[in-house]
């Protein structure tokens, strides 16, 4: 089968939110969708949008394996509620954010003020004071550093601790859209049969005529990428810009991305392997299991079988030409977001290759010289364990391997572009010809 897919290179995202704004102008600039961002960009580490969506125990009680099948966990909310067919627990508007508008009439005439907001609004949640998400990416405004500390007498008093913490501070941006999963839980939980996955390209859509507003999809999507339109009473979600895809155009978010970091393409996969892959017992095997579902679009056997199954010639060409398959399966530098959710997501990420801290202090080329690549990968500014929690269910090795390949590629290209003798060890590590 064929599936449209996207790979985003996180090293290139500058957090400008252009993708979010152009998507919003195209798809959710309507009554009832004011709080909705089909595309959002989260600052990491952070709570995300909606707030704490990754806290699966809170939202749906999690999943468990029973006789090789993935089912809602016993005693979990999703199981109880699907039995009585009531509405599962849902994020509240404050978990997204309260949309606001501006007093445009006075926007330019109002006098300058001295007050700058420095803290998000707080509320008591589960008895604890918690920051309410005051915008789709409030976490972006919470960063700080030594200069910030120096201006604050309270922080100055505890400066040693704070400085040490800031010294190790790290952040990066994580743009997110619906994953158009191979095993979409939003489709599985919809009681009306309104959520569906298109056979021809794998895009997951909501049939607006069939939707009855149960919102099981909102609860059932672990990525929280289905939204409820309060005006129409129907669920809505990212459409992967299907009218544009059908016309051979890229999605709006891809076309307008300032960092040019979104790669679109077609992946060929074996549908028979998907169920088995989604049910592998150990979460840490899910990344490899999903990779095993994908087929090589240059393999003549695969092409013959795909043609026989009716996949159009254009799509096979797209599968061969797009960099998506190569980034995911050939070079293995792109990784899935939260594979442990077991929905087989189809938007993958090249993890950020942050500087190697030790090497930087020694004045290296961003720590990417040959000696550093293989020895110092565990002293990256962004902890490998944090990236592994996001992309490989906590398994550090595939992330380290992807970063090593990325670093090696950069080092190889630097040698090449500077006209220097390429290091054969580096070239070999990324499968490149040192003379190329
Ligand atoms: Fe469905 Fe959520 Fe997967 Fe999108 S990310 S296909 S809404 S389960
Ligand atoms: Fe990142 Fe591109 Fe979106 Fe800007 S437009 S936030 S660079 S993904």
Characterization of the model:
The radius of gyration is 23 Å and the shape is globular. It is 35% helix and 15% strand. A five-stranded mixed sheet has the order 13-12-1-15-14, with helices on both faces. The chain has 436 residues and is an alpha+beta fold. Helix 19 packs across helix 20. A hairpin with a 2-residue loop joins strand 3 and strand 4. It contains 21 helices and 15 strands. It binds iron/sulfur cluster (2 copies). It is found in: Cell envelope.
CA distance, first residue to last residue: 35 Å
Q: Estimate what percentage of residues fall within beta strands.
A: 5-15%
* CATH-defined superfamily of the domain at 355-436: nitrate reductase domain like
Class by alpha and beta content:
alpha+beta
Query: CATH topology of the domain at 355-436, anyone?
Result: nitrate reductase domain fold
Global geometry: globular
CATH class of the domain at 355-436: Mainly Alpha
Low-confidence stretches: 77-85, 144-151, 359-364
Helix content: 25-40%
Question: Rg to the nearest angstrom?
Answer: 23 Å
- How would a textbook summarize the main sheet? 5 strands, mixed
Arrangement of strands in the largest sheet: 13-12-1-15-14
- Count of DSSP E strands? 15
Tally of separate helices: 21
What's the CATH architecture of the domain at 355-436? Orthogonal Bundle
Average predicted local confidence, pLDDT: 81
Bound molecules: iron/sulfur cluster
Cofactor: [4Fe-4S] cluster; [3Fe-4S] cluster
Main location: other
Protein name: Nitrate reductase subunit beta
Subcellular location: Cell envelope
């Amino acid at each position: 089968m064929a599936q449209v897919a996207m790979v985003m290179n996180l090293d290139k995202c500058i957090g400008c939110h252009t993708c979010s704004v152009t998507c919003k102008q195209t798809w959710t600039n309507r009554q009832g969708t004011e709080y909705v961002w089909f595309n959002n960009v989260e600052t990491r580490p952070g709570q995300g949008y909606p707030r704490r969506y990754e806290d699966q125990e809170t939202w749906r009680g999690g999943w468990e394996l029973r006789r090789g099948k993935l089912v809602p966990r016993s005693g979990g909310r999703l199981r109880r509620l699907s039995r009585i067919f009531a509405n599962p627990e849902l994020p509240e508007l404050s978990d997204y954010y309260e949309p606001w508008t501006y007093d445009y009439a006075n926007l330019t005439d109002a006098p300058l003020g001295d007050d700058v907001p420095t803290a998000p609004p707080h509320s008591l949640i589960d008895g604890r004071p918690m920051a309410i998400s005051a915008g789709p990416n409030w976490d972006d405004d919470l960063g700080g550093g030594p200069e910030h500390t120096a201006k604050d007498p309270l922080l100055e008093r505890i400066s040693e601790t704070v400085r040490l913490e800031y010294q190790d501070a790290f952040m990066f941006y994580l743009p997110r859209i619906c994953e158009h999963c191979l095993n979409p839980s939003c489709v599985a939980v919809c009681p009306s049969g309104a959520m569906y996955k298109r056979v021809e390209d794998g895009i997951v859509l909501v049939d607006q005529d069939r939707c009855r507003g149960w919102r099981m999809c909102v609860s059932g999507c672990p990525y929280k990428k289905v939204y409820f339109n309060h005006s129409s009473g129907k669920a809505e979600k990212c459409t992967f810009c299907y009218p544009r895809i059908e016309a051979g155009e890229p999605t709006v978010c891809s076309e307008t991305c300032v960092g040019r970091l979104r790669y679109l393409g077609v992946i060929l996969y074996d549908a028979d392997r998907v169920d088995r892959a989604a049910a592998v017992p150990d979460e840490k095997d899910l990344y490899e299991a999903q990779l095993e579902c994908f087929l090589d679009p240059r393999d003549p056997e695969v092409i013959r079988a795909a043609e026989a199954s009716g996949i159009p010639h254009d799509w096979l060409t797209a599968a061969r030409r797009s960099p998506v398959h190569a980034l995911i399966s050939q070079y293995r530098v792109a990784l899935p977001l939260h594979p442990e959710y077991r929905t087989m997501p189809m938007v993958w990420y090249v993890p950020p290759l942050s500087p190697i801290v030790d090497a930087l202090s020694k004045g290296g080329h961003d720590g990417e010289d040959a000696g550093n690549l293989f020895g110092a990968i565990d002293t990256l500014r962004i902890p490998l364990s944090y990236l592994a929690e996001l992309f490989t269910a906590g398994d550090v090795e595939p992330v380290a391997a992807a970063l090593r390949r990325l670093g090696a590629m950069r080092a190889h290209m630097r040698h090449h572009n500077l006209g220097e003798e390429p290091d054969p060890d580096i070239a070999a590590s990324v499968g490149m010809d040192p003379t190329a």
